[in-house]
Amino acid sequence: MKFFIDTANLEQIKEAEALGVLDGVTTNPSLMAKEGIKGEAAVLKHYVDICNIVDGPVSAEVLSTDFDGIVREGEALAKLHKNIVVKVPMIKEGIKAIKYFSDKGIKTNCTLVFSAGQALLAAKAGATMVSPFIGRIDDSNWDGVQLIEQIVQVYENYGFVTEILAASIRSPLHIVQCAEAGADIATCPLTSIEGLFKHPLTDIGLAKFLEDAKKMG
Ligand code: G3P
Fold this sequence. Notes:
An eight-stranded parallel barrel has the order 1-2-3-4-5-6-7-8, surrounded by seven helices. Helix 5 runs parallel beside helix 6, helix 6 packs across helix 8 (144-158) and helix 8 runs parallel beside helix 9. By secondary structure, the chain is α/β, with parallel strands linked by helices. It has eleven helices and eight strands. 55% of the residues lie in helices and 17% in strands. The structure holds SN-glycerol-3-phosphate.
């Protein structure tokens, strides 16, 4: 399973990269706004800064909702760096654009996916990745992990190569559940990745080993 970090915060990206287990980055307009990045030039520079930290796919989201706009933005984003993946919303115009990008060899991440039917459309259009938002599904009183299982099954049935990128992860448990379900990638906040380290028996065991080591002289 690949680990992506779901943030536009450069310090957190550097911290995750230093762990040695980071495979890529996802961003979205909300995450970019949170970092106070304003204006087209600053946004584009920020994506390049992220690409210079992590040698892996970096999702950069388009803001247009019409085919021509999505294509124009996506082509400009893809030219920024070889690792840019154009993030496109799950709407009719988005699916048309994903098919266009796929034919041109431009990588895409179909975002805002909340059902297996939407994931099927994304795969048929040739999306490189599909992003089911599992935390937001849980928030609405459904089971986000169950959706991952369903998409894994559908993609296996037909041999789709679109990677399942579990997004809107809220906890280390979500990561493990998505791994069990067979998601190809989990994109997570740094806190969820760091949560995977934690087990009280590890801390107790290490303290005991270090205490006993003192007896070794
Ligand atoms: O990048 C998309 C996704 O991970 C958003 O997560 O926490 O805003 O639901 P969240």
